[in-house]
Amino acid sequence: MKPNTPIYIIIVAAGSGSRYGSALPKQFCQLCGRPVLMTTIERCLQAFPQAKFLLVLSREMTDFWYEQCESYGFKSPEIVDGGDTRWQSVKNALDKIYPPGIVLVHDGARPLVEADVVKRLIDRLEYGDVAGAVPVVPVTDSLRMLLPDGTSQAVNRSEYYAVQTPQCFDLTALKRAYSADYDSRMTDDASVIELTNNGCIATVDGSTNTLKITNPGDIAIVESILAHGKA
Ligand code: CTP
Ligand code: MG
What we know:
Blueprint (H helix, E strand, L loop, with lengths): L6 E7 L16 E2 L2 E2 H12 L4 E6 L1 H14 L5 E4 L4 H9 L7 E6 L7 H12 L5 E7 L5 E3 L5 E3 L6 E3 L3 E4 H7 L11 H7 L5 E5 L12 H10 L4
Parallel strand pairs: 1-4, 1-6, 4-5, 7-12
Antiparallel strand pairs: 2-3, 6-11, 7-10, 7-11, 8-9
Helix pairs in contact: 1-4, 5-6
The chain binds cytidine-5'-triphosphate and magnesium ion.
The site of cytidine-5'-triphosphate has 23 residues, from β1 and α3.
């Protein structure tokens, strides 16, 4: 990395966790005795201590988060108010930062960030031929495509990857991409870049440890990965 290139890390944690189904949004549920989000932030900090962090939270959860930080003696990054969609939450954080720089956008619900993956992302972006780099892992389930008549058809799984976060971008390109209107196909930041014609996206190897807590039971899986010392 060029010396003095500013690095920003946006952690989006303003979702309600509807699929997880607990009264408390999943990112505040307990993982190894403290809120999930604390592990996410701590691991991002370990990977990039010199980065500037922005934590996106829904306004209703901000006081609760500050209380949790006080109870656990945890220093919170600067908070940004979230929006109704992940896209809006990322956009609100991007509105607070200015180029030049590299920005990593990460899901608060993915606690097991790995420093090796972050390094691969930044090295790939710095090669200079792409607007962003994303971590991917092979898909393990078989895949079927839904057809307009309601039937479905098997597709070749080896042609697909599952995409994770953190995703890494040139800040100018990502801000430009987020200045366009929202489209429901924008499910991650790389898709925002592509759907707004703001450059190409490279892939690097991700890690199966960086799973996103989505359904009930996923926190227990993350705890088991940690207990076995695999992450
Ligand atoms: N997120 C956000 N703002 C939103 C929606 C999502 O910051 N309006 C964040 C979530 O908190 C999470 C990440 O984006 O860290 C990935 O989203 P997802 O796993 O879908 O979380 P939720 O939207 O909270 O869960 P669900 O879709 O099950 O409701
Ligand atoms: Mg969601």
